[in-house]
Design a protein that fits this description.
By secondary structure, the chain is mainly β. The chain has one domain: Acetoacetate decarboxylase-like. Helices cover 8% and strands 52% of the residues. It has 3 helices and 15 strands. It has a 15-stranded mixed sheet that branches. The longest helix has 11 residues. It is globular. The N and C termini lie far apart (38 Å).
Length: 256
């Protein structure tokens, strides 16, 4: 029997981003460096954060990502996100719980363009000889300190970067209401490395992560990619199974 999330939407409604429309123009993000850490987490705590339309991953895991974008329509920025591993139907997805961007312009564009719940903060991705370090500081307090330790070169085909799902208030058929929004970047890999994930500081409250804590490490990767944030193609009703509640907004990426 399928498993579903247990999230009560009323508990998060007041902090959801609001999109003015579903016609967000795509952002090209060439030359980005993205570090992703995957770590197991508590199944019980994870189910409480997933909307009823989505299925929990088994085992439950967190995806912590820090991406440095040297070019974008709003200028250079670095973005950190925490996503919860899940599935929409049969498709793996990472539900965005929290996000921080290094510039107010990027945070505003991400919130109102794709429903990514970004707040402006100090976000950095720093390379040392034996590690890459991602740090987020909010109001002078470190809310994330993580690293990929002992990177080793691999093929880009060995890296799996799971598509995102965000939750936001968005207009459809004349009504603005909570929706799940699929964000499916494409990636052209130029270089990739793999290592061991390490998390020294994780402030769950700052990431809207409830009682989640990073647990056993799975894998960490970093890649140099040309990527994007595409136009919105699919939205989903957070209260219905995706086969019932999915709406297509545009036919394909070619419509961009």
């Amino acid at each position: 029997m399928p498993l579903f999330g247990h999230l009560d939407l009323a508990t998060i409604a007041n902090r959801l981003p609001t999109l003015p429309n579903l016609d967000t123009p795509a952002w090209a993000l060439p030359g980005a460096e993205t570090m992703q850490l995957l770590l197991e987490t508590s199944r019980t705590a994870a189910d409480a954060l997933l909307p009823k339309a989505m299925h929990p991953a088994v085992p439950s895991y967190l995806a912590i990502t820090v991406t440095r974008c040297p070019e974008s329509p709003v200028g250079p920025f670095t973005l950190a996100t925490v996503r919860l591993g899940s599935r929409a139907g049969a498709h793996p997805r990472g539900l965005v719980l929290g996000a921080y961007a290094s510039t107010p312009e990027a945070a505003d564009g991400l919130r109102h363009g794709w429903g990514i719940p970004a707040t402006a903060a100090k976000v950095s991705l720093t390379r040392r000889h034996d590690r890459l370090m991602g740090v987020v500081e909010k109001d002078g307090t470190t809310v994330l300190d993580c690293a990929l330790v002992n990177p080793e070169a691999i093929s880009g085909s060995d890296v799996q970067l799971i598509n995102w799902v965000t939750m936001a208030n968005a207009p459809l058929d004349g009504t603005t209401s909570p929706m799940l929004i699929q964000v499916d970047p494409k990636y052209a890999f130029h270089k990739a490395e793999r290592g061991r994930p390490e998390v020294r500081t994780f402030d769950a409250a700052a990431w809207n992560a409830g009682n989640l804590r990073p647990g056993d490490p799975i894998v960490a990767t970093v890649a140099m990619v040309d990527t994007d944030l595409p136009r919105i193609r699919f939205v989903m009703d957070p209260l219905k199974p995706v086969y019932q509640g999915t709406r297509r907004i545009r036919e394909s990426r070619a419509d961009e």
